[in-house]
Amino acid sequence: MQEQATSSIAASSIPSSSERSSSSALHLEHKEGMESDDEIRRVPEIGGEATGTTSASGRDGSSATLQVQPLTGTQKKRGRSPADKENKRLKRLLRNRVSAQQARERKKAYLIDLEARVKELETKNAELEERLSTLQNENQMLRHILKNTTAGAQEGRK
User: Fold this and answer.
1) Cβ(68)–Cβ(54) under 8 Å?
2) By three-state DSSP, how is residue 80 classified?
3) Average pLDDT per 10 consecutive residues for the chain, totaling 158 residues
4) What is the rounded end-to-end Cα distance, in angstroms, of the chain?
5) Structure letter (DSSP) for residue 158
6) Is the CA virtual torsion 87, 90, 94, 100 positive or negative?
7) Is the dihedral of CA 72, 75, 77, 81 positive or negative?
8) Which intervals carry biased composition (Polar residues) (predicted)?
9) Distance CA 44, CA 78 (A)
10) What is the predicted pLDDT for the residue at 29?
11) Complete DSSP assignment for 29-69
């Protein structure tokens, strides 16, 4: 009788096939409802398997049922897979590169526009300075003529 009790205890401590596949000694000692650190850190394959049971069919048409541990209150949700994160990071980097290139092109076009405007304004400024000089000379001549004519008119009255 004692042998049966010992053998049943020994049989209950032998890990099942799923427990053996995890190769964790701590897995044997965890209490019901509690998960070991290794189980929490374990990341399922990137096949898109969610919690619960999923079935997959092979090439020969047979279907196999895969068991995935359900989420418990203490276990965190996985979030994105590393491949998704990397893909998202690469897309973001590409968008940033394109955006930076567009910003450089806009800046270059803006500078070219500013340089053209500077040349245009310098040309207009030179034309206006020349016109100012011409008008000042004309004004000075007209004042001189006016002074001479008014002086001649005053002499004619006397």
Assistant:
1) yes
2) coil
3) 51 51 45 60 57 49 54 61 93 97 98 98 98 98 93 78
4) 161
5) -
6) positive
7) negative
8) 60-74
9) 9
10) 46
11) HPPTT---HHHHH----SS---SEEEEEE-TTS-EEEEEEP
56: left (phi over 0), alpha (psi -120 to 50) or beta: beta
State the DSSP H helix or E strand holding residue 77, giving kind and residue range, or none if neither. Answer: none
Q: How far apart are CA 27 and CA 31, in angstroms?
A: 9
The two three-digit tokens of residue 139, written as one number: 């004004």
> Locate tokens 């209950």: which residue?
12
Instruction: Report residue 128 as tokens.
Output: 């206006």
CA–CA–CA angle 12, 14, 20 (5° rounding):
135
d(CA 40, CA 19) in angstroms, rounded, equals 14
**Residue owning tokens 């205890």:** 9
Q: Which residue has the tokens 């049943």?
A: 8
